[in-house]
């Protein structure tokens, strides 16, 4: 009965598609993307090191907006910018990344500076493993720095350099001395002017765009260094940023320059907290969820019944 097989095969395909379409929406794309990238080994040559500092309050807000279960790791001291990473970068392109397939990350090597890293290179996304940020930064970016520069060819040196740069050019100090303090709105031009006045280099200013409130938050600032570990202009780096020509020169930013940028002093309530639920609401929500689940099961049942009918029909028609 060839057709029988065909029908079963079709039913199988159908179910596969159905199941796949159902589960694909919940994937965390970032880790997958890293695994794909990990298969490529790139030419490690690069032009600049992008030293990225983040405002942990905004990073925390962004993380908590993604899921009601998300919790943050924040530095114990207030008003400190933390390190995201040191990213070797070729001008006008992204990367290189994952330059050493055989490299491993060994957290023990960071023992001597671990206490500092826990504060200044903190893993804001606390639901992830303790050393996940360091592991990621080392394998994706550190391996490329290590392949080219003796000054950065061990975990100790790479992470130690980050700590040194943060001490020298912490955005808490740079912005603070320029009168830019948490808790207020600023324009991108104001922020940029302070950065240029203090460091005499062009840097990248990164915003987090909150889709719910349509507000933009100051999120990251990228400072560039050359291979002699000296400050350099970031012109020519490619990111999600755009280059906006202004009378004062190019601005490297993904922020909307015509709207205020909020520099939050405390973590804003996430959208889950804003829709605070009473026990009655929770009960209603539970019932809705239950009904939806039931409806889905019924739908699945109907599909199976239809497939069964199809098989019967095919059987009948071939008899
Ligand atoms: C890659 O990593 C391995 C293991 O740490 C190391 O022995 C090797 O020297 C590295 N290769 C390059 C090109 O950095
Ligand atoms: C990790 O690093 C520590 C300290 O340098 C070393 O003693 C240990 O052998 C390393 N482990 C691996 C698996 O390389
Ligand atoms: C910052 O700007 C946003 C958007 O215009 C506004 O909603 C918010 O109230 C402002 N915050 C402060 C502290 O001025």
Automatic annotation (TrEMBL):
| Reactions listed under catalytic activity | a guanylyl-uridine-RNA = a 3'-end 2',3'-cyclophospho-GMP-RNA + a 5'-end dephospho-uridine-RNA; an adenylyl-uridine-RNA = a 3'-end 2',3'-cyclophospho-AMP-RNA + a 5'-end dephospho-uridine-RNA
| GO biological process terms held by the UniProt record | RNA catabolic process
> Record's GO cellular component, any one?
extracellular region
Report the superkingdom from the record. Eukaryota
The active site lies at 84, 137, 141
* Compartment(s): Endoplasmic reticulum lumen; Lysosome; Secreted
InterPro entries given for it?
Ribonuclease_T2_eukaryotic (IPR033697), RNase_T2-like (IPR001568), RNase_T2-like_sf (IPR036430), RNase_T2_His_AS_2 (IPR033130)
Q: Where is the signal peptide?
A: 1-21
User: What family is this?
Assistant: Belongs to the RNase T2 family.
What's the source species for this entry?
Aedes albopictus
The UniProt entry, under CDD domains, shows: RNase_T2_euk
UniProt keyword terms in alphabetical order: Disulfide bond, Endonuclease, Endoplasmic reticulum, Glycoprotein, Hydrolase, Lyase, Lysosome, Nuclease, Secreted, Signal
Official protein name in the record = Putative ribonuclease t2
Query: A Gene Ontology MF term for this entry?
Result: hydrolase activity
């Amino acid at each position: 009965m060839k057709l029988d097989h065909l029908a079963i095969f079709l039913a199988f395909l159908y179910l596969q598609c159905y199941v796949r379409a159902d589960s694909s929406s919940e994937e965390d794309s970032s880790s997958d993307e890293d695994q794909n990238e990990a298969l490529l080994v790139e030419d490690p040559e690069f032009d600049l090191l992008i030293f990225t500092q983040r405002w942990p309050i905004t990073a925390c807000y962004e993380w908590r907006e993604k899921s009601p279960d998300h919790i943050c790791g924040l530095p114990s001291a207030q008003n400190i910018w933390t390190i995201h990473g040191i990213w070797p970068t070729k001008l006008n392109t992204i990367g290189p990344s994952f330059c050493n397939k055989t490299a491993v990350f060994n957290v023990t090597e960071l023992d001597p500076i671990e206490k500092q890293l826990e504060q200044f290179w903190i893993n804001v996304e606390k639901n992830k493993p303790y050393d996940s940020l360091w592991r990621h930064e080392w394998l994706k970016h550190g391996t490329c720095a290590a392949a080219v520069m003796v000054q950065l060819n061990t975990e100790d040196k790479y992470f130690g350099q980050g700590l040194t740069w943060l001490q020298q050019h912490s955005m808490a100090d740079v912005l603070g001395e320029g009168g830019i303090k948490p808790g207020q709105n600023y324009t991108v031009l104001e922020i940029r002017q302070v950065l240029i006045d203090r460091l005499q280099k062009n840097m990248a200013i990164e915003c987090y765009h909150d889709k719910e409130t349509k507000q933009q938050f100051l999120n990251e600032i990228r400072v560039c260094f050359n291979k002699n570990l000296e400050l350099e202009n970031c012109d020519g780096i490619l990111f999600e940023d755009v280059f906006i020509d202004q009378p004062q020169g190019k601005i490297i930013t993904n922020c909307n320059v015509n709207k205020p940028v909020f520099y939050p002093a405390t973590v804003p309530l996430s959208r889950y907290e804003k829709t605070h639920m009473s026990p009655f609401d929770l009960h209603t929500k539970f019932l809705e969820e239950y009904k939806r689940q039931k409806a889905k099961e019924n739908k699945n049942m109907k599909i199976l019944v239809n497939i069964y009918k199809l098989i019967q029909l095919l059987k009948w028609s071939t008899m």
